């Protein structure tokens, strides 16, 4: 998910392009204003952290661009493309490393495990993702 800072800074196309060029398949995508309740549910694992309130207010401050991406090792591949959580420590060449400056506005969210991906897809895209074949898939795996 491209966070509000990424959308405001015009980085949606660049970020989608990086995932597409890597070979991941877009099976869901939408621009949306995140309701408070969805933001709190999404970040429930961080409920007790001191930054939780700021995180929820940031993610609801302006629209996000949410996606479902599919492919071999999609979760770890996407996390590698994203870079470390803190952009100050993310390697150049990664999305956060190239475009982020502070941990409070780190451009992008990505599921960190199969379990969190299943939970988040159900939360954000219940029944909305699209199943289809691409001719190029035979050249990717
Ligand atoms: P990630 O987004 O890489 O999965 P996370 O799940 O640990 O990282 O944290 C969720 C978001 O919370 C993260 O993208 C930015 C914010 N965050 C994490 N640690 C923080 C901290 N120490 N101070 C402020 N914001 C933080
Ligand atoms: Mg996380």
From TrEMBL:
<comment type="function">
    <text>(Microbial infection) Catalyzes the phosphorylation of dZDP to dZTP, when the bacterium is infected by a phage that produces the substrate for the synthesis of dZTP (2- amino-2'-deoxyadenosine 5'-triphosphate), which is then used by the phage as a DNA polymerase substrate.</text>
</comment>
<feature type="binding site">
    <location>
        <position position="3"/>
    </location>
    <ligand>
        <name>ATP</name>
    </ligand>
</feature>
<dbReference type="GO" id="GO:0006183">
    <property type="term" value="P:GTP biosynthetic process"/>
</dbReference>
<feature type="binding site">
    <location>
        <position position="96"/>
    </location>
    <ligand>
        <name>ATP</name>
    </ligand>
</feature>
<comment type="similarity">
    <text>Belongs to the NDK family.</text>
</comment>
<dbReference type="GO" id="GO:0004550">
    <property type="term" value="F:nucleoside diphosphate kinase activity"/>
</dbReference>
<feature type="binding site">
    <location>
        <position position="79"/>
    </location>
    <ligand>
        <name>ATP</name>
    </ligand>
</feature>
<keyword id="KW-0963">Cytoplasm</keyword>
<dbReference type="GO" id="GO:0006228">
    <property type="term" value="P:UTP biosynthetic process"/>
</dbReference>
<dbReference type="GO" id="GO:0046872">
    <property type="term" value="F:metal ion binding"/>
</dbReference>
<comment type="function">
    <text>Major role in the synthesis of nucleoside triphosphates other than ATP. The ATP gamma phosphate is transferred to the NDP beta phosphate via a ping-pong mechanism, using a phosphorylated active-site intermediate.</text>
</comment>
<keyword id="KW-0418">Kinase</keyword>
<keyword id="KW-0547">Nucleotide-binding</keyword>
<keyword id="KW-0546">Nucleotide metabolism</keyword>
<dbReference type="GO" id="GO:0005737">
    <property type="term" value="C:cytoplasm"/>
</dbReference>
<keyword id="KW-0479">Metal-binding</keyword>
<keyword id="KW-0067">ATP-binding</keyword>
<feature type="binding site">
    <location>
        <position position="106"/>
    </location>
    <ligand>
        <name>ATP</name>
    </ligand>
</feature>
<keyword id="KW-0460">Magnesium</keyword>
<dbReference type="InterPro" id="IPR036850">
    <property type="entry name" value="NDK-like_dom_sf"/>
</dbReference>
<feature type="active site" description="Pros-phosphohistidine intermediate">
    <location>
        <position position="109"/>
    </location>
</feature>
<dbReference type="Pfam" id="PF00334">
    <property type="entry name" value="NDK"/>
</dbReference>
<keyword id="KW-0597">Phosphoprotein</keyword>
<comment type="subunit">
    <text>Homotetramer.</text>
</comment>
<feature type="binding site">
    <location>
        <position position="51"/>
    </location>
    <ligand>
        <name>ATP</name>
    </ligand>
</feature>
<dbReference type="GO" id="GO:0006241">
    <property type="term" value="P:CTP biosynthetic process"/>
</dbReference>
<dbReference type="GO" id="GO:0005524">
    <property type="term" value="F:ATP binding"/>
</dbReference>
<protein>
    <recommendedName>
        <fullName>Nucleoside diphosphate kinase</fullName>
        <ecNumber>2.7.4.6</ecNumber>
    </recommendedName>
</protein>
<dbReference type="InterPro" id="IPR001564">
    <property type="entry name" value="Nucleoside_diP_kinase"/>
</dbReference>
<feature type="domain" description="Nucleoside diphosphate kinase-like">
    <location>
        <begin position="1"/>
        <end position="132"/>
    </location>
</feature>
<feature type="binding site">
    <location>
        <position position="85"/>
    </location>
    <ligand>
        <name>ATP</name>
    </ligand>
</feature>
<keyword id="KW-0808">Transferase</keyword>
<dbReference type="InterPro" id="IPR034907">
    <property type="entry name" value="NDK-like_dom"/>
</dbReference>
């Amino acid at each position: 998910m491209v966070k509000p800072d990424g959308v405001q800074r015009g980085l949606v196309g660049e970020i989608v392009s990086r995932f597409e060029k890597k070979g991941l398949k877009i099976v869901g995508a939408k621009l949306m204003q995140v309701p408070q309740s969805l933001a709190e549910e999404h970040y429930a694992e961080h409920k007790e952290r001191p930054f939780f309130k700021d995180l929820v207010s940031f993610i609801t401050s302006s629209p996000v661009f949410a996606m479902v991406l599919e492919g071999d090792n999609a979760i770890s591949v996407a996390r590698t493309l994203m870079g470390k959580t803190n952009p100050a420590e993310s390697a150049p060449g990664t999305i956060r490393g190239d475009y982020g400056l502070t941990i409070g506005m780190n451009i992008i969210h990505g599921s960190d495990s199969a379990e969190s991906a299943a939970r988040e897809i159900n939360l954000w895209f219940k029944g909305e993702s699209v199943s289809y074949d691409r001719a190029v898939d035979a050249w990717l795996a």
